[in-house]
Amino acid sequence: MMGIGSHAPTSPEFTSIHHRRFHPQTTVDSPHLRLYPLGMSSSDSESNPNQIIEHIVLFHLKPDADPSAVDAMMSSLSGLISLDSVLHISTGPVSGRRSNPLPFTHMLHSRYRSKSDLTSYTEHPAHVSAVASSKPIVDDVMAVDWVDDYFPGSPAVSPGSALRVTIAKLKEGAWDSEKGAVLGLLRGVKEKFPSIEQLTVGENFSPGRAKGFSICSIAVFKGENELKELDAQSELLEIEQNDVVDSVLVLDYVVAAPVQTASL
Question: For this UniProt entry, which residues form the secretion signal (predicted)?
């Protein structure tokens, strides 16, 4: 499901997180969790055991949306963890916005083993139903997807973690080498900030609802205090000042404790 946005209370009803249960030999806490490469079956997974697919949906909810309808929407989206293809999913309000003026207020973040698993999720009747039921309270939506080929360890994001989502729009005609320089700049943030627990960076492969944005990154911190350390530095300015970058969207999001929801 793709994203939402609008200022809303940060109560547990508005935010939820779930992780897929794995067989005992590949639990969510195992550093040896196999994430299958695109188009490959489990028997082929040894060729790239560290791949992960990131899916971000940003929503702008209508200012007059009924809180109970927002609760129902978040609950419906979070319930999609019941789908076999979903490794991780969390939903809730955006806690901070910087740079680009797009007024997104809520976010969905989920992870998959492969592009085919992401497709299975988007085409599943439960997802289609969740999207349809949310439309009356959604003003705008934006979604991006990318592959990170080196993501060892668990796909889970712990409750209380703070996420910094950075999405850049490049100027028309940017060369591949110039795109690579922007990707490298984002990847280099982890060397400067050891407090980043997880980092994925990649190029969006789903342009239909991306509003022209193409370079994507998620940095996961233990909590908001660690995220504030990043704010004290100039990492955003470095990206904005790159000659090929047209604009940058930066969103912060704090993962709340799981909310119990009925299985779909």
Answer: none
Q: Are 59 and 105 in contact (CB under 8 A)?
A: yes
**Residue 107 pLDDT > 70:** yes
What is the spatial distance between Cα 73 and Cα 134, in angstroms, rounded to a whole number? 6
User: Residue 107: helix, strand or coil by DSSP?
Assistant: strand
Alpha-carbon gap, residue 107 to 3, rounded angstroms: 5
Report yes or no: 13 and 71 within 8 Å, Cβ to Cβ: yes
Q: Do the beta carbons of residue 92 and residue 74 sit within 8 Å?
A: yes
Stated length of the chain: 264
Cβ pair 254, 233 in contact under 8 A: no
The reply to whether CATH 3.30.70.100 applies to domain 12-24+47-254 is yes
User: At residue 207, does pLDDT exceed 60?
Assistant: yes
Both tokens of 111, joined, read 């992870």
212-219: average pLDDT: 96
Give the integer Cα–Cα distance in Å for 65 and 17: 22
**Is residue 62's pLDDT more than 50?**
yes
pLDDT at 236: 59
- Whether the pLDDT of residue 183 is over 60: the answer is yes
| Residues in contact with 57: Cβ distance below 8 Å, sequence separation at least 6, in sequence order | 1, 2, 3, 4, 107, 108, 141, 142, 143
Torsion of CA 78, 74, 8, 234, to 10 degrees: 40
